[in-house]
Amino acid sequence: MRMRLMLLGGGNALGQALIRLGAEENIGFLAPRPPEDGWDAASLTQLLDDNRPDALINLAYYFDWFQAESVSDQRLTQQERAVERLAELCQHHQITLVQPSSYRVFDGSRATAYSEKDEPVPLGQRGQALWRIEQSVRAACPQHILLRFGWVLDESIDGLLGRFLTRAELPQELLLADDRRGNPTPVDDAARVIISVLKQLDCAAPLWGTYHYAGNEATTPVVLGQAILAEASQRRTLAIQVPSAQAHAASLDASEEPQNAVLACKKILHTFGIKPRAWRAGLPPLLERFYRNV
């Protein structure tokens, strides 16, 4: 890798997966520790003035965007401002910005998979913030890659998977929507995609723009839950063996989560040659890491 790579958010699950996978391929990242209060305009300005990487992967807010149960409006606003400044700095220093985004920018009203050409209409505060962040990145830094991911699963104790498995240890009904659809995406697979994109950018290929990536085989939360519980029960005694089905409209997060979160991944395949991997194959190593950490 000829490019000097900087990673913001090296301490979270996706950052760790990226560092782990990069090490296997002799790809290193400069991964600075964030200030105590998190990155802001001043600290980002100083960081990039001092270091001048060729590409920056911004995973600083990964947990809030992909794993947290909820995020305050104030926190999202601060993150919007920080990313806007980061995009301006990247443009000023001619740094390529790799910025994750999410299926949350869509409202889920389509019957078919969302492509990059579909107009975002986000539902909740998080989706709206992500859409504004995407727009600010496009406006400020033409040399960008925006990667919209599907339902990312990682080994965080308090992430999506962790909260689900904690509930499965309690003897009470575990309700999941059976009429909501999306693409589970194990964190290692998301990291693989970022590495693949970086390798092509290292060849000076100007492939800027927005791309979708999500695990192969769209499914429902109830089917995903069944697969996770089947795998988890081989490692831990659970109170719940099978989740119960409920309607999307009855789910507590129905106002935030799109009913259809399925992403079409043809553009990333045709541009970068990145093929979607089956999410089921990623569950065993993911659960192994999760139970090693609890």
Describe this structure in words.
Belongs to the dTDP-4-dehydrorhamnose reductase family. Pathway: Carbohydrate biosynthesis; dTDP-L-rhamnose biosynthesis. The two termini are 35 Å apart. The longest helix is centred in the first third of the chain and has 21 residues, at 73-93. 41% of the residues lie in helices and 14% in strands. The radius of gyration is 19 Å and the shape is globular. It has a single domain, classed as Rossmann fold. The protein has a 5-stranded parallel beta sheet with strand order 1-2-3-4-9, with helices on both faces. The chain has a two-stranded parallel ribbon with strand order 5-8. Strands 6-10 form a two-stranded parallel sheet. The chain is α/β, with parallel strands linked by helices. The chain contains 10 helices and 11 strands. Strand 3, helix 5 (125-140) and strand 4 form a beta-alpha-beta unit.
